[in-house]
């Protein structure tokens, strides 16, 4: 039985932007290392710091983090930054993973308010991933990033990505001043339906104003600014006309765990009833919504509200946060809380259907 890691990552590096066209190099992101930041590095784009590149950690420090959390987060720099694609594939073999679906890292936050900058940077990233896909011989599928500030440019870029191994489009629950249910995105959803690509709604937040607000007095945590937008967007999608307008469109809700699903489904049942409507018995299956769980989720309970056909799992490979667990696929099986057939759905059948993998 093949295994599919539905949420792995690439970590962008200076080398990523070598794939930008020569004329676009004036938009190239650069790494800055502010004094007093404990070794942290940030991207500098269009005169502004635009998010964390990496926190420099030794192998021992990474091992210490893994020991404290009880989850193995250790990945070599050459594999998480894709300096050595063959080494990444070999590590997948060691982990018992046949296919990884690659999400970006720096795009979790908005990178610019200027379309020209976004077009150039997205194009460079996507060509880097296209090269990785070619080297990975089909084992490294990917979620593309689009310059959503310019819809015409997004639709054009989408064609390139679909031809070069992309299986979805990266979106955040809040995109600038729009929610992802905004009719502005309808032309994109229509073209994605034609190309059989999924919407990958990953933890993140594309609204700098919202991030600034919810980051206050929050102890540096990312729950409110990155995870809550995923849950809110899921609720908005199922309350909207989007699933019915685009009956082939599939959504992946990634890295926010899945224990929130019962709460949201219960709320939807009440709201639909208030409006004189009846929510389908299994709304995730009816409306093609797939949610990635984590190994410490109550998966057997989640099945009561999500069904067995719409839950996936990812390792968050390449990161070192509360979602990262490079042995997640094996560990879920070893928990023994679900049946073998349910496990096979989570690690193969469901992500295969989600991403339309052959």
Question: How is the secondary structure organized here?
Answer:
Layout: E1 4-9, E2 30-32, E3 40-45, E4 48-55, H1 59-69, H2 77-80, H3 85-95, E5 99-103, H4 115-136, E6 140-144, H5 151-163, E7 166-171, E8 174-175, E9 178-179, H6 186-195, E10 198-202, H7 208-214, H8 223-239, H9 242-245, E11 251-254, H10 261-274, H11 283-286, E12 289-293, H12 299-306, E13 311-313, H13 328-335, H14 340-355
Parallel strand pairs: 1-5, 5-6, 6-7, 7-10, 10-11, 11-12, 12-13
Antiparallel strand pairs: 2-3, 3-4, 8-9
CATH class: Alpha Beta
Q: Low-confidence segments, ≥5 residues, pLDDT <50?
A: none
Provide the β-strand percentage band.
15-25%
- The Cα radius of gyration reads 19 Å
Give me the strand/helix succession: EEEEHHHEHEHEEEHEHHHEHHEHEHH
Strands side by side in the biggest sheet: 1-5-6-7-10-11-12-13
> CATH topology, which one?
TIM Barrel
- Provide the CATH architecture: Alpha-Beta Barrel
Mean pLDDT: 93
Based on helices, strands and strand pairing, what is the structural class? alpha/beta
Number of strands: 13
From the spread of the alpha carbons, the general shape counts as globular
Number of helices: 14
Question: Care to give the gist of this entry?
Answer:
By secondary structure, the chain is of the alpha/beta class.
What report would you give on this structure?
- The structure is a single chain.
- This protein has 358 residues and is an alpha/beta fold.
- The protein has a single domain (4-11, 82-355), classed as TIM Barrel.
- It is 42% helix and 17% strand.
- The chain contains 14 helices and 13 strands.
- It has helices at 59-69, 77-80, 85-95, 115-136, 151-163, 186-195, 208-214, 223-239, 242-245, 261-274, 283-286, 299-306, 328-335, 340-355, and strands at residues 4-9, 30-32, 40-45, 48-55, 99-103, 140-144, 166-171, 174-175, 178-179, 198-202, 251-254, 289-293, 311-313.
- An eight-stranded parallel β-sheet has the order 1-5-6-7-10-11-12-13, with helices on both faces. It has a three-stranded antiparallel β-sheet with strand order 2-3-4, with no helix packed on it.
- Strand 2 and strand 3 form a beta hairpin.
- It is globular, with a radius of gyration of 19 Å.
- The mean pLDDT is 93.
């Amino acid at each position: 039985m093949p295994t599919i890691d539905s949420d792995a990552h690439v970590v962008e590096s200076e080398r990523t932007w070598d794939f930008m066209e020569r004329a676009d190099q004036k938009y190239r992101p650069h790494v800055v290392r502010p004094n007093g930041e404990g070794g942290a590095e940030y991207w500098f784009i269009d005169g502004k710091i635009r998010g964390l590149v990496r926190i420099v950690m030794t192998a021992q420090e990474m091992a210490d983090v893994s020991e404290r959390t009880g989850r193995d987060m250790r990945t070599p720099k050459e594999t998480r930054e894709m300096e050595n694609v063959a080494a990444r594939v070999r590590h997948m073999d060691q982990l018992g993973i046949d296919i990884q679906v690659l999400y970006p890292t720096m795009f979790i936050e908005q990178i610019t308010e200027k379309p020209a900058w976004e077009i150039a940077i997205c194009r460079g990233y996507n060509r880097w991933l296209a090269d990785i896909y070619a080297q990975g011989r089909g084992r490294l599928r990917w979620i593309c990033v689009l310059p959503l500030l310019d819809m015409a440019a997004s639709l054009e870029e989408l064609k390139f990505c679909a031809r070069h191994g992309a299986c979805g489009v990266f979106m955040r629950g809040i995109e600038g001043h729009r929610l992802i249910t905004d009719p502005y995105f309808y032309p994109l959803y229509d073209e994605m339906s034609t190309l059989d690509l999924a919407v990958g709604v990953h933890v993140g937040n594309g609204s700098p104003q919202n991030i600034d607000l919810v980051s206050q007095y929050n102890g540096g945590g990312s729950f409110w600014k990155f995870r809550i937008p995923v849950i809110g967007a899921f609720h908005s999608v199922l309350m909207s006309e989007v699933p019915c307008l685009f009956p082939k469109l599939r959504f992946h809700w990634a890295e926010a765990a899945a224990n929130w699903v019962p709460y949201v489904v219960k709320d939807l049942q009440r709201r639909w009833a208030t409006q004189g409507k009846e929510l389908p018995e299994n709304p995730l299956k009816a409306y093609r919504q797939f949610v990635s769980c984590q190994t410490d989720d109550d998966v057997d309970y989640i099945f009561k509200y999500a069904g067995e056909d719409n839950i996936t799992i990812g390792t968050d490979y390449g990161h070192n946060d509360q979602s990262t667990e490079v042995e997640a696929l094996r560990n879920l099986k070893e928990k023994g809380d679900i049946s073998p057939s349910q496990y096979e759905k989570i690690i193969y059948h469901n992500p295969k259907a989600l991403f339309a993998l052959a």
